[in-house]
Amino acid sequence: QLRQNYYANICPNVESIVRNAVTQKFRQTFVTVPATLRLFFHDCFVNGCDASVIVASTASNKAEKDHPDNLSLAGDGFDTVIKAKAAVDAVDQCRFKVSCADILAMATRDVISLAGGPSYAVELGRLDGLSSTEASVNGRLPQPTFKLNQLTSLFASNGISQTDMIALSGAHTLGFSHCSRFANRIYDYGGRNGAVDPSLNRTYATQLQGMCPRNVDPNVAVNMDPITPRIFDNQYYLNLQQGMGLFTSDQVLRDDKRSRPIVDSWAASSDAFNSAFVASMTRLGRVGVKTSPSQGNIRRDCAVFN
Ligand code: HEM
Ligand SMILES: [Ca+2]
Ligand SMILES: [Ca+2]
Q: What CATH number has the domain spanning 14-141+285-297?
């Protein structure tokens, strides 16, 4: 059972220590924001929110972070947690008493507010997991080609509702995607020569083709929210109303009549979106958490098992 203020007697200033470290990192690069947010999601959906995604591979173990679905996690997310952890462990009272999983949860809360999103109290008390394998990632993360039923059932397998899934997808109001993730929508869609996904806004499709020409350098990435790429806002839902969702998994939320009313309501009200997002992030943060010593511990180095 997680709770707010879990560290009140263990490391009373932990939240401000983490916030300062994250703010410093944010001043160096904005990528800190989307990188940390996505890292938290990918952590929670594989083995629960237990910092298993941060563990580095060793000679005898290929870790989660080296699964193909995790190779595009930006290094700045990992670096944010490592730096915040170092700041926490620099305080005598706190050294080795705050889990990497909780530091990631706090850092995620902090990057959302640094980007103009809502602030919220974060629940704490997670232990760090004891295993991280590449194989455990298989089938656990959503693909950008997913339709509504696939999205809903994958999230449901983590105890996350369809409404929460739609709110959490609003995280795509920030950050980047590599061209390969949506190339199927702008070139030869459905295997038909020269076809473009009809659910994609035509002007936007042409812009995407310009930024992502055929045979583009695989390192090229584009903003997922072309309108306010650095602001955490409800623009994502307004984009969906214009056919400007980057992935099939984004646009389907507006095009499927079952999820459309929610998309339209959050496009109409940023307050409604913000409060839904906070509630959904809190539920995401509870997925598969480990709280008993048989299930986990507090890693001294977030990238290495103790
Ligand atoms: C609903 C199903 C989802 C799918 C199919 C999906 C898929 C993707 C893909 C393909 C990328 C681009 C990766 C790249 O090419 O570098 C991406 C980026 C991102 N995703 Fe998702 N995602 C989903 C849900 C979420 C959720 C729930 C969150 C967080 C709460 C999230 C946060 C992000 C962020 C912040 C980025 C940008 C990362 C960066 O700029 O470094 N996504 N997502
Ligand atoms: Ca995990
Ligand atoms: Ca935005």
A: 1.10.520.10
